[in-house]
Amino acid sequence: xxxxxxxxxxxxxxxxxxxxARANLxxxxxxxxxxxxxxxxAVTEVGLLLRVLPDGSISRAVVSGRVLYRERIRxxxxxHLEKDLGPLALPKLPASPxxxxxxxxxxxxxxxxxxxxxxxxxxxxxIVPIEGECVPSQDALDLIWITPDSVTSIEFELEMxxxxxxxxxxxxxxxxxxx
Amino acid sequence: xxxxxxxxxxxxxxxxxxxxARANLxxxxxxxxxxxxxxxxAVTEVGLLLRVLPDGSISRAVVSGRVLYRERIRxxxxxHLEKDLGPLALPKLPASPxxxxxxxxxxxxxxxxxxxxxxxxxxxxxIVPIEGECVPSQDALDLIWITPDSVTSIEFELEMxxxxxxxxxxxxxxxxxxx
Amino acid sequence: xxxxxxxxxxxxxxxxxxxxARANLxxxxxxxxxxxxxxxxAVTEVGLLLRVLPDGSISRAVVSGRVLYRERIRxxxxxHLEKDLGPLALPKLPASPxxxxxxxxxxxxxxxxxxxxxxxxxxxxxIVPIEGECVPSQDALDLIWITPDSVTSIEFELEMxxxxxxxxxxxxxxxxxxx
Amino acid sequence: xxxxxxxxxxxxxxxxxxxxARANLxxxxxxxxxxxxxxxxAVTEVGLLLRVLPDGSISRAVVSGRVLYRERIRxxxxxHLEKDLGPLALPKLPASPxxxxxxxxxxxxxxxxxxxxxxxxxxxxxIVPIEGECVPSQDALDLIWITPDSVTSIEFELEMxxxxxxxxxxxxxxxxxxx
Lengths: 179, 179, 179, 179
Known about the structure:
Four copies of one chain form a homotetramer.
Chain A: H1 15-22, E1 27-37, E2 43-52, E3 58-61, E4 63-66, H2 73-85, E5 101-105, E6 121-129, E7 140-146, H3 148-151, H4 154-159, H5 164-174
């Protein structure tokens, strides 16, 4: 989404070609909502990154990024999780390729409420338990872990853009913890 | 997939630009498995199209096609269902955007077993009850309705390519009717 | 749930035996969230019943009821939908037996937030498009159709008990329409 | 299912009362398909128990057992997994309460094809990655890990009863690995 700054890294496309594609095709993304779980698998906390957006503003966000040509969805998820949470995060991807939802980000914010000013992105969203130590890397300024009750507060909702606050609430609903 | 012949119809891309994109980006698809259901919603039959493939061979296939730029997934599904089953098919799309699976078609048939020689396609797969009358149109030569038991027979499996026989069995598993 | 008044109708159990079972076993329920959808399957309205609860108070609620011995889940859903919405409602049950969530109602309201003072109920929850005419019957005083935005308002939330307001929001999240 | 021998352990019901309930109510079960996954979460092996059935015959089976009164589904899953795989198995339950399917076991084998001669059981089925060491305990004679391709062979299918071979194939379909 609007939150991935180096989205062309590792691509076979030149920056020009990627711009061209973005003006003509929906782009495949993955969104990963990092969570901490207890010993029975129940979610106890949600992880939010702090990021500088392309326009210089600061925003809370989940892990998000593009799927590359000939890259498996699992590998794209692992690559973006490692990029944002560091190499020791030990993310536990779901066994199934079925996302809990599919988010349609449009340049026009009125179509779905999910908004990306740069492109039409179709994002497969997964909830990913994190078992290791996180070291926010690259573009992420910080990572905080917040309880389900707190993460849905108006305070955090206002710190997220493009519909990501709503996406976090949809993830909580899926795990049965929407307040 | 390999089964959609006029995949550039309605696009903003020239044929050259689409070729270029296909050589560099995963392309977003939808797969729809047409089914007949009884009054309690249980699947009684699966619909299979008969198609001439780009190489001139004939194959059984489900409904499949590309999502266009700025097109909603629902609208892409409706467009491809109408294109293949005619305007009176009355497809009943699921209320949720969650696909029952996501299929990764690769140019290399060994990666996932799902294969498209032309491109890397990521396809959101849905089971779609059809309530109206079907008139196979455009590229589809024919449409047949087959019981869950028969559609998994080796006979039909051999008439499907690219992994679509497996996709049909995955759909039957999802509705609890895998023999 | 607490909202089904004649839950013993059609059972093989005497009222005493059902009381006994309820004091010793989790009871299987189905919850159905009635929705109106547009021609592309997108949810436009949610249906809420108005009910007199066992204690004489009035509450908004979704369709809910027990699964009987040797009754298929589909048949239980159809039976409760017909009981509450009338015989011409034409509910369209999902093709898959996978519920969008499983709700655990406990006599102790602090365990999950879902509460049934009479029993431990485990409820399979489904979103069910309604295509026909509804005539609220039996215990339901009324049925209203409300937009996704309105149904999540504090006004309606306060009119639902036992966690059903939260269940409706979880259903909206599943269909991508949580405000 | 038919595979859980000490299903009354820990219950508040006398054996007589449980018999009575089983003759009159659907009983809530959980089925857990144990899997080994690689570092990206993809399933590499499925675990099957070897069990002596009530009638003295031997059968392969997945983990299965009853949900007790006032027991959370998560806790029932953990209890049965620990009972069958030992205390060091480190099962990783999914974050969501949404089962990948719901299995309806009937005393009559012709209703759904899932069969339990003793009762009408409604079972929530989950795929559970196992990260630790397994020591098959109690009723399980043995535990073997088998690749997705092998577990669907006719050999293993014949060693499973009550529809569990089909359940394993449905689980493989859900994770995208049905051969």
